[in-house]
Design brief:
alpha+beta; Molybdopterin biosynthesis moea protein, domain 2; Molybdopterin biosynthesis moeA protein, domain 3; Molybdenum Cofactor Biosythetic Enzyme, Chain A; Molybdopterin molybdenumtransferase; 635 residues; eight-stranded mixed sheet
Length: 635
Amino acid sequence: MSKKRNLYLNTIPVDEAREKYLKAVSELLTMPAERIPVTESLGRVTMSAVYARYSSPLFNASAMDGIAVSAKDTEGATETSPVILQENMYTVVDTGDPVHNPYDAVIMAEDIVETDDGVRITSSAAPWQHIRPIGEDIVAGEMILPGSHKIRAIDIGVLLSAGILEIDVVKKPDVAIFPTGTEIIEPGEEIKEGSILESNSRMFENMVTTMGGNGHRFPPIKDDYDEILSKVSDAADKYDMVIINAGSSAGTEDYTVHVLRELGEVIVHGVAIKPGKPVILAMVKNKPVIGLPGYPVSAYIGFENFVAPLLSIMGRRNEAVNEQIEAHISKRIVSSLKHKEYVRVKVGKVGDKFVAAPLARGAGAAMSLVRADGFCVIEQSSEGVEAGEKVKIELYRNKNEVENTIVIIGSHDLILDITADMMPGKYNNMFVSSTHVGSMGGLMSLKRGEAHMAPIHLLDEETGQYNVPYVKRLFKEPMAIIKGVNRIQGIMVKKGNPLGIKGIEDLENPDVRYVNRQRGAGTRVLLDYKLKQLGMDSEKINGYDREMATHMAVAAAVASESADAGMGVLSAARAMGLDFIEVAYEEYDFAAPVRFLELPHIKAFTDIIKSPEFKKELDRLGGYTSDASGRIVLV
């Protein structure tokens, strides 16, 4: 090729160049999945949501050293009127031991006195005290990790605890790196006048590795048009991205732009940045190819501005930085003066303030580490913090991710896992955070400004209408209901329904051990409504006061030997392989202030629940209809 100068008279701003290039190559940046052992997955990014195969604990486990008893055998025990339990009325347990039927409580070793007749106790035991129920930390079938999640050390521990041995992760982008220039020599070679030691490509190689890719550095190519063309053409066939270093400027032997025009399309040549103007952004054989200038600082700046964003998108990575922020704690935390306590929290930005919601605090609650966005420290000399108080949070996640997270607090449903998985895949750098406190708990959080929306399914007894009457009564500001799904609620029972339960009336049978949802949960409101309609007394239901926080936790209790029946949704029953007795259809919606409806992540959430992909997932779960999903109703 004859020598000629490669003049580029017009340069464009960096942001404009990057946006133009990303738009042109966006469809080329999707990486396939690869399956690897969980034990080798540290730092990799999940391809899609990962669901637990097993619960943790796998059984009802003692939380203390002591004795397992039947709570009813301890009724009436006091200091002045102790109860003696004979050997056949209890079994000795250590922390972590299984607790089997008929035992349903544990008494700590320090609260019993051994006698010749048995053990003496001086206070009655409450049902399920000091017992970690099956699935307390992880419930089989629930989402452990969403898609596009960078796997950490704690995640690996939880994945293995949940029975996951292999995992689908995003394939690492393979990047070919070509240094060019006749004057370039390798470090260690003899230096002659005019020689330049090549080092940029090694910098690129390691920057690619740091960003989760595989850098493949090739020996320098001389300023030979045909050789550069041949090497780049072959690399575009085999690699996910190609970087050409040097040869991008206006010199007579700067062939890169001519090669790329012959092989493909040059989107941008020349960017208004100093140093680093001679950047080439191109496509060859449907692969991004980037020409970076030869000067080290220019090369580095070009990489950071144009290669790094592509690698982030291809690898679905948003690198976290341990950053401290101030946030308002969403509920009171009581702490001992004896200890410095690290409380795991979920964090989101609602309006102009960060809000931190405390997670499970037990030492065995490994999932709280997985779910956490950071932690706040309660100092040893402090008794805790009050709800609404400002606290310092050290983030595990990138602050930008937290700011782009929709904070959902309220009733639990498996569809929240679906949206959390779909959001970052469909909308780059947008996320869903959900905390399960029941419908009324969610509305109270919304009222305090701690959430963007509250999932609710509250039946109003007077009108027979779902959700709208509650929102009208509780809020003065303009509110909206984002329609969610209609779902089937019913009684979950063991496969084959061994006790022959046909409906709510059968829950009064003293042999049926029931497990309930927490106060304020829509499922419990529905049960109470049905009990009132039937003239039934909740005190006659064995286990009415035993509470679980989610449908899946109730299903796990029924699937084990610790309960015979519990109210929940059909999808939870299916996930745990249970039989199901239909009770009612209900409306599961999302309450939100009108002022939040225009937020980008709220719009993204609404678009997701309208999407065909979402409806396909509902069909897979079963028990849902979605004709109105995403419709806005002003209250």
